[in-house]
Design goal:
α1 packs across α12 and α7 packs across α12. This protein is an alpha/beta fold and 462 residues long. A hairpin with a 6-residue loop joins β21 and β22. It folds into two domains: 301 residues, 3-Layer(aba) Sandwich (Aminopeptidase); 135 residues, Aminopeptidase i, Domain 2 (Roll). It contains twelve helices and 22 strands.
Length: 462
């Protein structure tokens, strides 16, 4: 069943709203390339809209009432948001969820070394990447260094127009005959994804000194950030593509940027959540870390921080049953928002055309994820999907039902199955992406707009 292209139905007013949203979206992507930066920006935005930290309520034993707006900051890497409705919270919530981490290169704990008058940072790639895509690009360093005394130093190098950039070199074609014979996964080895950061030696009177390029880099870091080499032990520095999000296409119908998996869903979830009018049901939005490596760790969806936050809210609302938080979740409905592989006619052999998502045709729902025989999948109930269809059709939202590639080729995972473990009614949905997991990904502005509208009507009506 072919779905209509959303661009065909837009009025001039729609186009103006779409453009305003996408301009803000490009700024969000350009300024917030890491999960820490996203968390800081999300909290800044919600505090401006009257949200208060749950810790304030808990520490001061403040009762929570309908209309209260609450956020939870989990280790500066993930956020949960709540707007309390007039119905008992144990009736369940309408939840949006997405992740704010993206594939990248992480700096190792002992990263800095010198070889043949070049200074390098050793890296370990994070998430599923094609390693060869990361060479010969202008790269930036984003992150935080924490010194032993607790001083936290934010690092962002390569984004300002006056900043230097760094990068990973590649072999010239004239000498690359053997390299070109390798499988794509081995053309560039993981241990060769070392970032070149300098070549100028420190000038010293003692000509016997070694590693003078490395020493010069350390001198620069000491002068600018007051950090020592051992401070890398307690650093989280990510290597990401340098540069801003841009309009893509001569018609400006698309966005090209780093990190749209899954910040396109995180951003639209956030702004639709903030723009949703008051509802009788409590609504929530959760934006988490670590999805690209299995949602593990204290800041991933597998952590109990979300359940713990709901338990605290229940207690402060007078819901004292020990299983109150689980009752809330078991009566909740959720859109687990993650990107889908948009149909690319240049790679049609891995797509199944009748069940692919297409640019410009709206939100992409995925009844099940997983791989091959649905392994590791959340598989949404038909009754829930029917109700979602009703809500979207009644509100003139463009959407499509899709899978991620051919049965024996595709598949993927999201956070949906984790919430399903609590008996939440959940389905995957999101925005189609071209060049997913590449340093620069492409999305349709129409799909971004439809996701924004679709999330609002879900929160209001589910």
């Amino acid at each position: 069943m072919e779905r209509e292209n959303a661009w065909k139905k837009y009025s001039e007013e729609d186009i103006n709203i779409l453009n305003d949203i996408c301009e803000d979206y490009k700024d969000f992507l350009s300024n917030n390339k890491t999960e820490r930066e996203c968390t800081e920006e999300i909290i800044r935005r919600v505090e401006r809209r009257g949200f208060r930290n749950l810790e304030d309520f808990v520490d001061n034993n403040i009762e929570i009432h309908p209309g209260d707006k609450i956020y939870v900051n989990n280790m500066n890497k993930s956020v949960a948001l709540f707007v309390i409705g007039t119905e008992p919270i144990t009736n369940g919530m309408n939840i949006l969820g997405a992740h704010i981490d993206s594939p990248r290169l992480d700096i190792k704990a002992n990263p800095l070394y010198e070889d043949t008058d070049f200074a390098y940072l050793d890296t370990h790639y994070y998430g599923g990447i094609k390693k060869y895509q990361w060479v010969t690009l202008p790269l930036a360093l984003h992150g935080v260094v924490v010194k032993k005394d607790g001083t936290k130093i934010n690092i962002k190098i390569g984004e300002d127009k006056n900043d230097p950039v760094v990068g990973i070199t590649d072999l010239l074609p004239h000498l690359g005959q053997e390299q070109m014979k390798k499988e794509a996964s081995k053309v560039v080895e993981g241990e060769n994804l070392d970032v070149l950061i300098g070549s100028r030696p420190l000038v010293l009177e003692d000509e016997e000194e070694k590693d003078l390029v490395k020493k010069n880099i350390l001198s620069l870091l000491k002068d600018k950030y007051d950090i020592e080499e051992e401070d890398f032990y307690s650093a989280e520095i990510e290597v990401v593509p340098a540069g801003r999000a841009r309009d893509f296409g001569l018609d400006r119908s698309m966005v090209m940027a780093y990190g749209q998996d899954d910040k396109v869903c995180a951003y639209t979830s956030l702004i639709s959540f903030l723009d949703t009018p008051e509802t009788s049901k409590t609504i929530s939005c959760i934006l988490v870390d670590k999805e690209e490596i299995g949602s593990v760790g204290a800041t991933g969806m597998c952590s109990h921080f979300y359940e713990n936050a709901i338990a605290d809210i229940c207690l402060l609302m007078g819901e004292i049953a020990p299983n109150a938080a689980r009752r809330v979740l078991s009566h909740s409905r959720m859109l687990s928002s993650d990107v889908n592989a948009a149909y690319d006619p240049l790679y049609a052999d891995v797509m199944e055309k009748r069940n692919a998502s297409y640019f410009g045709r709206g939100m992409a729902f995925c009844k099940f994820t997983g791989a091959r025989g649905k392994s590791g999948s959340n598989d949404a109930n038909a009754e829930y999907i029917a109700d979602i269809r009703r809500i979207l059709d009644e509100n003139n939202i463009c959407y499509q039902i899709s899978e991620l590639g051919k049965v024996d080729i595709g598949g993927g995972g999201t956070i949906a199955y984790i919430l399903a473990n609590y008996n939440v009614e959940v389905i995957d949905c999101g925005v189609g992406v071209l060049s997913m997991h590449a340093p620069w990904e492409v999305t349709s502005k129409a799909d971004i707009y439809e996701a924004y509208k679709g999330y609002i009507v879900f929160l209001e009506n589910a």
